[in-house]
Every structure is written in C-alpha cells, then in structure tokens.
Write a structure and sequence with these properties.
This protein is of the alpha/beta class and about 675 residues long. About 60% of the residues lie in helices and about 15% in strands. Helix 10 packs antiparallel against helix 11. The radius of gyration is 48 Å and the shape is rod-shaped.
C-alpha cells in the first residue's frame, strides 16, 4: 500500500476519535441528545461500581473498596450535576464544541480509572467475585456504548480503553471461562460498535433532513410572508394598500371601542394631480405619487404622541388611521403638516409640478359608531373640503351630518321629480364691456320643489351628478333654453353650462346634438360653458365632445377659469372661443393689487390667443371701469342685471335700447 494511502487511512481513523466542528447543526443535536443520556451513563457506572465495591469490602484493602470507588463515584456525580445544568442554558456553537471535546477526552482518564480499579480488585476475590469483576466490566462498557451513541468518538474511546485491556487481562489469566467471557465481550462490543456506526450515520442523516425540512418550512413561511406583504402592499408607492388600510381601521376601531378612547380616520385627495398625468404623462404622474406618498409617510411617522397608520387607497387618494385618543386640534395640526409637505415643489426632470391636498377627518365616537360609517363620514368631510375649502382640512361635524341628511332628501326628491314642471330657467345678460349692449344670456336653472321650495343649483346639480340624473336633466333644460332663445333677436347668443358627465359620457353628446338640430336655433348662436373640472374629468373624451360641438358651429367657453386645476394646457389644447374669469378675482380688483394683476394677465393671455375674455361678478361702476381699462371684452354681473325669467327678457332689451339710445345702437351695429 502506498505511503500516501496509508497516511490517508490513518488520518481518517484518527478523525473517528475527534468531535467534528464543520457541522454546527449536527454538533448542537449531539449536545442536546447527549446531555439527556449522560445521567444514565453515570448511573450505570455508579451503581455497578458500588455493587462491586460491596462484594470486595471484606476481602480487599479499604482504599480499594472505600476510598477509590468513593472518589470515582463523586467525580461521576459531579459530572452528572454539571450536565443536568446544561439542559437549561443557551450556548453558542463554540461553547458546545468546547464542552463536547472536553467530554470526549475526559472519557480517557475516567475509562482508564475504572478499568485500573477493576483490575486492582480482581486478585482479592474468589472465583465468584472475579467473575463479577469480568461481568461488571463487560456490562458497564456495553452500557456506556449505548449511552454514548450520540457522541461516537467518546464511545469508541471507551471501547478501546476498556475492551483492549479487558481482553488481554483475562486471556493472561489462562482461565478458560474468563477467556470465553473476554472473547464474548469482544464480539458483543464489535457488534455494538457496528450498531454505533449505523446509528450515528442515521442520526446525522436525520439531523440533515430536519435541517432541510426546517429550511423548506422557512422558505415556505418566507414565501407566505412575502405573499402576505405583497397582498397588502401598493406596488407603485410601496405603501400599505387599501386592503391593509381597512384591516388596520377595523383593528384600531375595535381597540378604541374596548378602551373607550377616540380614533380618527382621514382621507387625503391630491388637488391638481390629474392635470399632471394629462400634461406630463403617467410616468411623471407615478413619480409624483411616489414622492407625495413618501412625504406624507414621513409626516405620519414623526407625528406624536399619536400613532398614525398611512396607506394608499388608490389613484391619488390616501388614507390615515390616527390612534392614541386624538383631539380635533391634533387632527388639524396633522392636516396642516401634511398639506405643507404636499405643497412643496416637485421637480422631476424638466417638469416642475405643484400640488395641494384636501383632507377629510372623522372621529369615533363623535361621528359614527362603526368603522364603515366612520370612513363614510371622513369621505364626506373630504367631499366638503374639495367643494368649499380646497386645499384645507375638514373634520366631520354636526353641521356636515345635517348636510348629509339634507343631501339625502334632495337626492330622493330628485329621483321622483318632474323636471319639466319643477325646473325653471332664468337668464343673466352677458354685456359688451365697451358698448354695454347685451351680447347674450347665460342660462341658469332653478328648482322649485313642491316639498322643499326653491333649491339652489349649488345643491341640486351636484346631487343630480351623484345619482346619475344630470344628463336627462341637462337635456330637458337645454331643449327649453333653445326654445326660449328662438324668440330673441338674431344677434343675441345663448350660453349654456354642461356638466362633466355631459361631455365625458361613454355614449358621447349625441342626445345634445339631436336636441340642437330639432330646436331650429342656429348652432352659431350657442355657447357651451365647460368648467376646468369637467375638462380634467376625462380630458380625451371631453376633447372629442368639444371638437364635435365646435364642428357644428357652437362656441366653447372655459368657465370659472382660475378656480379649478388652472392648467394653461387646456387653453391651447382646446378650440376655445371665450374664457370666463371667476367672480372671486373681481371683488377686490380695485383694493387688492394681486387680483388686479391676475385679471390683467388673463386679459393679456386672451388677447394674445385671440380668445374673448368674459368677466363674472361685476357689481359696481368702479369695477367695470377697471375691467375696461384692462381690455376685458364682456361683462356679466349684478351691475347690469340679475338673472331674470324668460318673459322679462323682452322688457330688459327694450329698456336697454332706450337707455343706450338709437345713435349708440347704430354705432354698435356698424
């Protein structure tokens, strides 16, 4: 056999007597199993030792029958106590390896000590006592091998330390019986060692398979955790999603109900986000959403002492659950901080975008007694904020609760109302700013409900939009307005407002076109007013509808300019004829330099783009004079006339002719 192979075999044989350090899982399993069997090992040693010592107590010296076995028994007892303590200690892999190796090499002196003591007793006994020593050594070594099954190296050391001297010693006695016992013990020990190797291999395989199983279970759990995370995560912003939000809301609500404390729900809507998508594309819109979500989350995480759960509900809407017994002042402070962060500029490549946000809050138990109702209250508070306090925070209150009840009544009555009988039209003049001749009338609807009396259009128009009745209502009102306009002089135009649902409906504006064609009024005398909000509702469809109306000859006015999303892209992307400047800029035109500059800029914009500028809300001569100097072409407001019924228009026009006189009228006609 080559020397290299011999060295290899010798090295492999030597490794059998060492505790391997390359498998921490096997090592830890050995330690746990071995620590449970060590008490059994030392019990076998101590009980057998006491029995042999008792047999020789009257025939052998006291140091052999009393002192040595006592020392060996005490050592065994101390080791038993030490191992019993290890069961309750958490050890590192390094500690376990050190203890196993210490145990491994302690078997050498312990095994040698018990063997030497047995041989020292042997000469003092009679044949029966000598047989007991042979039996003691054979049974003890077999018991130790069984007890050391999980520490193979220690079992092999014990086998060699005890069995080799055992066989040699009893063969040297020349006694046939003892020689037979020695051979029998050697064979049994060999069989036990074979079993030891098989058991150790199976034990190692079991540990490996358990490790694999645990790894599979860990992988399965990790996959399950990841699936749960993804199911509750918004993929774009990586914020908790709508499902997670409502789970958190239910949990927080139940906790607040149990502890009798307050919990709040908030809903955030980004004002002006849709135009960003339209103007810069969805890629920029997504990045704005991510950045806005990050800013709001930072505010929520740093808001104390209340805990705030934050999630994206969908689109440009986010949700808040405020725990920790918040007060109204806490919610307003949180809303102000969020609003302040959202308003900061967004610089994305070449696009500089600006947003604001409206927030609605509702508190338990003040506003609702269920989590679902609490969310609905917060949603209505948001709705109120967007309509009346855009960019602000609104907390649901008793006034809003009364408003909801009123809204419900209006919606129910609208469903059963006779539009033809209950709806009335009034008309407000649109006047040429220079000549002061009436150029047209804007149609305004009024609802005279048999039950509620006169209902403001600010109440019933949104209600009709919510319940899906705005389109049939528009059709009824347009037909009546066109019929009225046919009685006017040919130079007088009709201005009629369209809802977002009218211009963005899936089936288009075909019903409106049919009504126009049947009316007998020239489309060139009709101006349709569309708000910025309606345009941004679905810009593509609105653009198609407007183009169709324009092709018929109708004029298109952008209403309430400056109060909606104020996207100038609508001005150059739509075939507009007029821009109507909202009345809010006119009230302080002579007192507030900012209002004056805004109207001046808008008038200049209209002039550059050859679009007529119509200003609403003019109530005084001073306002009219300022608007004339700024170059505004058309005026609308109480300074000339309030909205009037159809049968008052003839008298109004007659009085106007009389006031202005025929020469001025002729000049205007020229």
């Amino acid at each position: 056999m080559p020397v290299a192979n011999l060295k290899s075999h010798v090295a492999a044989a030597m490794r059998l007597f060492h505790v391997p350090a390359d498998n921490p899982d096997l090592m830890r399993a050995q330690f746990n199993a071995f620590s449970k069997q060590v008490p059994l090992l030392y019990f076998i040693l101590m009980s057998n030792t006491i029995a042999v010592a008792y047999t020789y107590v009257n025939v052998a010296p006291d140091w052999l029958t009393m002192i040595v076995p006592s020392v060996l028994t005490v050592l065994a007892g101390l080791r038993t106590y030490w191992w019993l303590r290890q069961r309750h200690l958490v050890r590192s892999d390094a500690d376990i390896l050190r203890n196993l190796r210490a145990t491994n090499w302690l078997t050498l002196p312990i095994g040698a000590g018990f063997t030497a003591w047995s041989f020292a007793l042997y000469p003092y006994g009679d044949p029966f006592a000598k047989s007991q020593v042979a039996f003691y050594m054979a049974v003890t070594v077999i018991g130790c091998i069984f007890s050391l099954m999980h520490l193979r190296s220690a079992a092999l050391i014990v086998t060699l330390i005890v069995d080799v001297p055992y066989v040699l010693f009893f063969f040297a006695t020349g006694e046939p019986t003892l020689k037979a016992i020695a051979v029998n013990n050697l064979l049994v020990s060999g069989a036990m060692v074979t079993v030891l190797f098989i058991y150790y291999r199976d034990f190692a395989d079991l540990v490996a398979s358990r490790k694999s199983l645990l790894a599979q279970q860990a992988a399965t759990q990790a996959l399950s955790d990841e699936n749960f995370r993804l199911a509750n995560l918004d993929s774009l912003t990586e914020l908790p999603n709508r499902r997670r939000f409502f789970a958190e809301l239910s949990s927080a609500f139940a906790d607040a109900e149990r502890r009798h404390v307050r919990v709040a729900v908030g809903i955030i809507d980004l004002d002006g986000f849709k135009p960003i998508n339209d103007n810069y594309g969805h890629s920029v819109g997504d990045r704005v959403l991510i950045e806005a979500g990050k800013r709001i989350r930072e505010v929520c995480e740093g808001f104390g002492p209340q805990r705030v759960e934050f999630a994206r509900l969908g689109g440009d809407e986010f949700g808040l659950v405020v725990c920790g017994d918040p007060e109204d002042t806490d919610l307003m402070r949180l809303g102000e901080r969020i609003g302040g962060q959202v308003k900061l500029p967004y610089q994305l490549d070449t696009a500089h975008t600006g947003l604001s946000c409206s927030i609605g809050f509702a508190l338990f138990p003040d506003s609702a007694t269920t989590s679902e109702a609490l969310y609905e209250c917060a949603d209505y508070a948001l709705y109120h904020a967007k309509r009346h306090q855009r960019g602000r925070t609104v907390i649901f209150s008793s006034e809003l609760e009364a408003e909801i009840r009123s809204r419900g009544v209006i919606e129910n009555l609208l469903r059963t109302s006779d539009f033809g009988a209950e709806m009335e039209l009034v008309f407000q003049p649109i006047v040429d700013a220079v000549s002061e001749h009436t150029a047209g009338f804007e149609t305004l609807a009024r609802w005279n409900s048999p039950r509620l009396g006169w209902v403001s259009p600010a109440d019933f128009i949104p209600a009709a939009e919510r319940i899906g009745l705005i389109r049939p209502l528009t059709q009824v009102l347009l037909a009546r307005a066109l019929a009225t306009a046919r009685t006017w002089p040919d130079h007088i135009r009709l201005s009629f407002n369209l809802s977002a649902h009218d211009v963005c409906a899936a089936e288009g504006i075909l019903p409106l076109i049919s009504i126009i064609e049947k009316s007998g009024l020239s489309p060139r005398r009709i101006d349709f007013e569309i708000t910025e909000t309606a345009v941004t509702f679905d810009f593509v469809r609105a653009q198609q509808s407007i183009a169709t109306l324009k092709a018929m000859g109708c004029g298109i006015s952008l209403d309430d300019f400056g109060t909606g999303y104020s996207s100038l892209s609508h001005v150059h992307r739509l075939p507009l004829d007029k821009i109507k400047v909202d009345r809010s800029f006119v009230a302080e035109i002579n007192e507030n330099p900012v209002s004056h500059k805004i109207i001046k800029s808008l008038a200049g914009l209209c002039d550059d783009m050859e679009i007529a500028c119509v200003v609403e809300g003019v109530e005084t001569s001073a306002q009219l004079d300022s608007l004339r100097r700024l170059g505004c072409e058309f005026i609308q407001g109480y300074h000339f006339a309030k909205p009037m019924p159809a049968d008052a228009i003839a008298d109004y026009l007659a009085n106007e002719r009389q006031r202005l006189g025929e020469p001025m009228r002729a000049a205007a006609g020229a």
